[in-house]
Amino acid sequence: MLIQFTNSGIYCKQADVYIDPWKPVNKAIITHAHSDHARWGSKHYLAHTDSEFILRYRLGNISLETLSYNQSVQINGVNISLHPAGHIIGSAQVRLEYKGEIWVVSGDYKVKSDGYTVPFEPVKCQHFITESTFGLPVYNFPDVSDLNVQLNEWVAENAAQGLNSLLIGYALGKAQRILSALETDQPILLHSTIYNTNEALGFDNSRYIKFTQDFKKEQLNPGIVLATGSVIGNPWLRRFDPYKLAFCSGWMQLRGARRRRNADKGFIMSDHADWHSLNDAVLATGAQNIYVTHGYKSVYAKWLREKYQLNAVEVETLFEGESIENESTETKEEIREENQQA
Amino acid sequence: MKAFSRLYSELDQTTRTNEKVNAMANYFMRTNAQDSIWAVALLTGRRPKRPIRTSDLKLWAAELARIPYWLFEDSYDVVGDLAETISLLIPLRKTEQDKPFSEVMNEIIDIQTKSENEKKEWLFSYWSEFLQDELFVFNKLITGSFRVGVSQQLVYKAIAKAYDLDDKVVTHKLMGNWLPQNTNLKELLSDESSSFDDSKPYPFYLAYQLDLPFTDLGNISEWQLERKYDGIRGQIIVRNQQVHTWSRGEELMTDKFIEFDILKTILPHGTVVDGEVLPFKDGKIQSFNEMQKRIGRKNVSKKTLTDVPLCMMCYDLLEHNGEDIRTKPLHERRALLEEVITKAKTDLLKLSPVLSPDSWDKVDTLRTESKQLGCEGLMLKHKDSVYETGRRRGKWWKWKVDPYTVDAVLIYAQSGHGRRANLYTDYTFAIWDKKELVPFTKAYSGLTDKELIEVDTWIKKNTIEKFGPVRSVRAELVFEIAFEGINASPRHKSGIALRFPRILRWRKDKNKEEINTKEDLMQLLNSV
Ligand SMILES: [Zn+2]
Ligand SMILES: [Zn+2]
Predict the structure, then answer these.
(1) pLDDT tens digit string along A146-184?
(2) Is the pLDDT at A326 greater than 70, yes or no?
(3) Pick the catalytic residue: B120, B157, B228, B395?
């Protein structure tokens, strides 16, 4: 077998490379820059071109080689290429081929286009390693265009009542999606983690206000605040009173998740594949062997075995999956900085 | 159905009272009277029965969702709510179709009696018809788990706003015996006598516990004082030679209180009396428990009628000769009430006696007599008060004798008398005074026989010293003591004396570190 699951991560012995290793290794291929996939300490990194700045921003001065989508490299006879995963900017599926044996490591992915990230492309293979963050049939995400309409209606409604709109989402990926979706003249204030992430991505910040200690309420009057989950429960929020609070996450599909967080609104905006997309993606690879990682692993693997007679197994990894409150792309310093401001 | 599910999500998305009232008012303004009455019914907790078994629902939902049953159960585990799980699993269709809400509700009622196959077919057609939000509300209705965070009062307020009526008028009109399938909101709110329901009660006026000093109430001569009886608050309505008896919980009790039926020949048409239904025999009020047991029975037998006869202790007159007199001052209503009761000459109706202490100082004494008289305390009603709707402050107060309680540890035990001579049943309790346990009261036992034996065994095993009939025991067992009052008492080591102390229960969940302190009791002493 070309790929093994080891204590350090997903390993290709022939090429001596790891994919998204969770321990420091010699050579690491990184599917995307979320911190449960891109960890520091490895000697050499390989990733997609669009991940370069954000990886350097997060991991510091690393030895990094980049590839564009569909471009390949040879390592000890293994043909390695990256393909769009549609998850966040620069996210890639890793394809490895050696003597006719083909593996694809999906990393995190979403199939439906978000209008911002390069869309997912299915890649034929015999062995497919898939995520299963939302691998339950209750997760069926709405159309992105409907969602964007709802989002814009909501911020306009709040403004009409003189309320600020507070949106909570990941700094890397979700924030840029939300900003691209907003069609409004309202002032938009960014939490500094998001502002800095934009900067690292080369995402145009000129239209936005960066939150600083000098912020005055009148700068919004009313407007939109985009922040990460770290601000929840923090007095930082109070300076935006009166406001309505919305979370942007796939977890918002469930009422309980919304209510527990006391959200006024939940936008089911996910960067992962929903149930039907997962099934479509798995089938499109033509693979007979499916390895299910983070999410509802055992349920989803059982479903694939029963429904499609695939050779599906669950695989233990250290990928954390998505949670609303703790996005791990933020550095500790940034959280501390933000709290001091509060 | 779309409008109602929109209302549901609006109510669900806000915790602000004002926004809730506005959302409902908007709904009632835009919605026809037929659909509206169903909304009123559901928002005020008049839910229809669950028409379909949960186990069937689950199986059928899995079938329509084309997933194996185990996957349905796994999904349900994650979501935690059956109605929501189903609405997330059913494949959605985009449909602009909208069904009148009242039609959906009537079908939910009708389907209860249909065969399994008919139920399944009906369900599948609905499940494939709705959008997600409607589907969720529909599922809430058929799983019998429909609940919204609004009070009855808020619903009435919203209706009042939408129909430009007074809250109290709405509250009154919506009381009583209506079923949403037989009426509509306009009809219920209208003045026409054709729709007037002879059984319709008035909303009860309820009092708050007195929390002001008497000085704030003014002159005692302006107040009518009565006992607060421990029975079932009720209304007896006589109209068109019919009797209807309602309990405060808006339950029609006519069939349970059948002895009142005779009042239709005694009281004139258009009489509504507010009072307390009490078990009354041989010139004395009987125990509330006896009446509870009687109510629990399906049929009221002849024997029950002689064993536990009921009467009404009458407080107030709300309707006189067919006229709503609630806005007349209490002293006028009381005069009319006395006239009606005197004329009626029946043991079924008794006048609640008016107490006339000449100063506030004497009121506390009256109140403390309550327990012996089988009463809960006193009622203070301003003589000019109108009969209000619902619980209000200001003109009516109740002043109940609630027991105080204290947690204490057992330190001495003494054997009892008579039947319990060989058991240690008389206890002395202590509380903390700084780092020392001080005895402060004895208490009569409120323990069950089983507990008594258990404590007795424990005492015999944990005795430290014997002095005659008294044993001192290890300070370990904690009890909750109830009492009626507290006084300073230099004679006692603790400096306080309790009135009517008794054991409420054995607190096995507490240890001696968690009991009350002398400081706690001194605080209580200074506050009363
Ligand atoms: Zn990710
Ligand atoms: Zn991940």
Answers:
(1) 999 999 999 999 999 999 999 999 999 999 999 999 999
(2) no
(3) B228
The parts of chain B modelled with pLDDT lower than 50 are 193-195
Eight-class DSSP state of B128:
T
Residue A9: what pLDDT?
A: 93
Interface check A255 vs B, CB under 8 A: yes
Give the pair of three-digit tokens for residue A38.
Answer: 């891109």
CATH number for the domain harbouring residue A234: 3.40.50.10890
Q: What is the pLDDT of residue B248?
A: 84
Contacting residues of B for A299, CB less than 8 Å apart: 71, 74
Q: Which of residues 41-70 of B touch A (CB under 8 A)?
A: 65, 67-68, 70
pLDDT band at A267; cut points 50, 70, 90: very high
**Ligand (nearest to CA of A172):** 1
CATH number of B2-142: 1.10.3260.10
Number of CB pairs < 8 Å for A and B?
40
pLDDT at A221 over 90: no
pLDDT at A321: 62
- Nearest beta carbon to residue A256 from set B70, B80, B92: B80
| Residues with C-beta atoms within 5 A of ion ligand 1 | A 34, 108
Domain with A220 in it: 144-267
Instruction: Pick from B9, B10, B66, B78 the residue to mutate for testing the A interface (most A CBs within 10 Å).
Output: B78
Into how many domains does chain A fold? 2
Q: Give the architecture-level CATH label for domain B404-527.
A: Beta Barrel (2.40)
3-state secondary structure B293-344: HHHHCCCCCHHHHHHCCEEEEEEEEEEECCEECCCCCHHHHHHHHHHHHHHH
Which ipTM was obtained for this model? Answer: 0.90
Answer whether B74 sits within 8 Å of A299, measured CB to CB. yes
Both tokens of B283, joined, read 């010139």
Q: Is B74 on the interface with A (CB under 8 A)?
A: yes
pLDDT computed for residue B209 by the predictor: 77
Could you tell me the residue ranges of all domains in chain B? 2-142, 205-400, 404-527
Same domain, A66 and A36: yes
User: Residue A330 is encoded by which pair of tokens?
Assistant: 């933020």
Residues A319 and A192 reside in one and the same domain: no
Would the pLDDT of A334 be above 60? no
Domain B205-400: which topology? D-amino Acid Aminotransferase; Chain A, domain 1 (3.30.470)
| B228 a catalytic residue | yes
Residue numbers in A near B149 (CB within 8 A): none
**B80 in A contact zone (CB under 8 Å):** yes
Does the structure show a pLDDT above 80 at A320?
no
Ligand nearest to the CA of A34: 1
Whichever domain contains A21, its CATH number is 3.60.15.10
Q: For the full predicted model, state whether its pTM sits above 0.90.
A: no
